[in-house]
Amino acid sequence: MEQPNLIRLKNIHKKYANGTIALSGMTLDVGQHDFISFLGPSGCGKSTALRMIAGLSPISGGTIEWNAQHHNHSDNSSGDISFVFQEPTLMPWSSVFKNVYLPLKMRGMSLEEARPRVLEALAMVGLNRFADVYPRELSGGMKMRVSIARAMVTRPRLLLMDEPFAALDEMTRLKLNNDVLRLWREHQFTVIFVTHSVYESIYLSNRVVVMAPRPGRVIQEITVDAPPVRDASFRESAYYMDLCRTASAALQRTMDTDLADH
Q: The pTM is what?
């Protein structure tokens, strides 16, 4: 049975004060427990769309509609949305535990009350033994795990991820891809994930939204009809490679169109 929408973007438009149109006419339905990747070249408005969904940037036109049963309207104090940025953005003077505790502290939860949830979030990403460690003692991949734990500690319904693994080596990136898929399966939240990588988008998602720049807009949606448990055999399958070729061709069309317009 088809899941109801969690969020609907209707004809979203974003124009900056300098006249730049970042997005135009972006319409998208996001279902409960979707894993959607925004795939597109630099400047196509992927991160801008993510920030508007999070309420970090105002929209210039159109609407973002939430399913009232699954969101406290415009108030995100309930922790409905969490955001993982390109950089871990950890506080270097605070331990891993206190970095993960921060969102709960900002919601007025005491340290003792929050302790079980913080430790649970660290266990989710395999860092329960590193609670007292400081960020400077961690590798890049471990810092990103802390950032994911910090996002998960609020138990969000929607997790927004803005190219979180772009700066990591391939092996670490693949391991974190698998970790995020596992968390998504186990905790049944919705993910919108921004990436430049065709291979990453197909591996992670049940839907890939290909975007074109100037102005940013959706030009194609690709459905990934594969089991949520994915491994090396999926990456080696003919189905995976066919979808990667489809996504690559769509991405190439966006760049060809952009060049033709200039």
A: 0.91
